[in-house]
Amino acid sequence: MNEQDLNQFRAMNQQYQVVVTQKQRMLLQSQELENALTEVENANGKIFLATGAVLVEGSKESVKSTLQERKKKTDETVETLSVQEEKIRKRLEELQKKLQKESEGENE
Description:
The protein is mainly alpha-helical.
């Protein structure tokens, strides 16, 4: 079995796990932003937006616009991570097949 291929497989598997975790976190953030947009839409009265550790009062439209922009960026990040995830997954499958073939060759 080729040690270099095995090390590459392990490293790519770790990278895959990181990308999947990031994607899950971004999907959760996107859902939270969607929920916040719904709350803003239904809100009457004062609206506050968290900016770091500070709450800042804003108009309904400005808060809605800010949340929509954040959601758009988050969704774009999810798309980018999905593409990365798919590329890494395909490469992992290729390496796995190669390693299995090498392993079978050694066992004969």
